[in-house]
Amino acid sequence: MPRHLLGAAIVTALAVTLAGCGSGGGSGDDALEIWIRQAPDSDSAKTAVKLADAFTKASGVKTKVVALFDDFETKLQQQAAQKNLPDIVINDTAQLGNMQSQGWLRPVDKAKLKGGDQLADRAWQAAAAGDGKHYAAPFSAQAFALIIRKDWREKVGLEPPQTWDDLGKLAKAFTEDDPDGNGQKDTFGFVAPAGTKRGYASWYASSLIYANGGNFLTDAGGGKFTPAVSDPKTVEAVKWLQDQFCVAKTVNPGAVSNDTTVTHEVFEKGQGGIYLVGPYVLARFVKSIGTDKIEVVKVPKGPSGGPGTLGEGENVYLMAGSANEEGQQKFAEFAVSPEGQRIGMNKDAPGAIVRLPVHKGVDMAAERSDARWKVFQEAYADAVYSSPVPNWAPIRQTTADAINAVWADCGADVKAGMDGLATKLTAELQAQKAS
To answer: What Gene Ontology biological process does one annotation of this record name (predicted)?
Structure first.
């Protein structure tokens, strides 16, 4: 394959990344190039290199891992413009529609993918586009739960939350009752990545929206959808969160501008005690905060019902235009195999790129001794994936902008904001021919 270039500055950065990770593939032009959306030289990037090296050992196919985090999609766009996409991309399930609609992906025949019949049906759903065809191999799954400062909860004398009312009371106590015992009023209940970058406000809100029986879209059948954001259950969830920002004031300051990178650090610094997040940070927090100080609790169902929290994960995408389609297929099959899944899980150590295994033959309890992972696994049984529209990315961004606006402006009327959002979503669905 020709060498993939991103310009001199990016090439230099990638060279440092690959050297730091110790890529077994080297920089040979014939290597299968694998991009993963992880910070360079992070624990997760190193796990990706372990996976690629094991694949090379098993198959003889050389690999080159490129770990990028900031502006990942923008850099893919640059490569697409040069007709020089990587061979493999490991990226969020929610990015499938965006990449497929631009013609970047090769279809995946579920019946011809070795081991495909051993993967969870729910995970395969996240590999399907709006046309019903699969454009990826499922690789990792996750659902969301509450990571709570257990030591703080015990200090304020409350039980793990079972209802939203319980959750609000716990957040209030964390904000007002000095749970860290330093004599200062410097803690908050919730930490939240509530900014608009990459649609984080929508991503964060979605678990509570789903937990209350709401949704962003309603499936009208035949690949057509209608907005559901002005439904009372959705409005109720967004309003409950606005009250946490504006009435109870239990959310960490600056949350409406934060992404997950900042929010992880806010939680680690002890500025807040409740984080609604996926399992990928559990091992990190065990190490940085202390295993005895944190607990994992399922998100309580809202006052209007369930079913559950956001379901998502990562897929292995086989990119169009590759000169090594056989190598692409082999890598996908290795990644979803029990061996590939176990390497990606990385046991209890930081850096898991397989959060919950998608292969039915992999026993998570046998791989991980930390029982808190089971809470996330149980939550996945009721998880809700994003609707299979042609392109979810602009819908997530549009909903993030609107939801962030009513959290940032305490005088904003949530129902009016969601009605306006429904109008915008109708226009977006029409543009995608999915209305």
So the answer is: maltodextrin transmembrane transport
- Regarding whether 55 and 198 lie in a shared domain, the answer is no
Are 282 and 143 within 8 A, CB to CB?
A: no
What CATH number did the domain enclosing 39 receive?
A: 3.40.190.10
- Predicted local distance difference test score (pLDDT) of residue 8: 36
Mean pLDDT of 239-255: 98
> CA-CA distance, 58 to 337, in Å (whole number)?
12
What is the average pLDDT across 368-388? 93
128 and 153 housed in the same domain: no
Mean pLDDT of 226-255: 98
Helix or strand or coil: residue 24? Answer: coil
**Which residues in 56-112 belong to E strands, given as ranges?**
63-68, 88-92
Question: Do 207 and 271 share a domain, yes or no?
Answer: yes
- Euclidean distance between the first and final Cα of the chain, in Å? 41
| Both structure tokens of 140 | 């990792």
Using an 8 Å Cβ cutoff, are 320 and 394 in contact?
A: no
Residues 212 and 46: their CA atoms lie apart, in Å, by 38
What Rg value do the Cα atoms of the chain yield, rounded?
Answer: 21
pLDDT digits (tens, 9 = 90+) for 322-371: 999 999 999 999 999 999 999 999 999 999 999 999 999 999 888 999 99
Tell me the residue range of the domain where 215 lies: 145-309+392-431
**Separation CA 340–CA 265 (nearest Å):** 30
* 214-243 mean pLDDT: 96
Indicate if 216 and 233 belong to the same structural domain. Answer: yes
Return the closest-CA partner of residue 88 out of 54, 139, 16.
139
Provide the 10 A C-beta neighbour count for residue 312. Answer: 22
Number of domains in the chain: 2
For residue 409, give both structure tokens.
């402006």
415 burial (CB, 10 Å; 0-12 / 13-18 / 19+) is middle
Strand partners for 68:
37
Q: Running DSSP on this structure, what letter comes out for residue 386?
A: P
Distance CA(95)–CA(313), nearest Å, equals 10
Instruction: Decide: helix, strand or coil at residue 89.
Output: strand
Please report which confidence band the pLDDT of residue 29 belongs to, taking 50, 70 and 90 as the band edges. low
| pTM assigned to the model | 0.84
pLDDT at 306 over 90: no
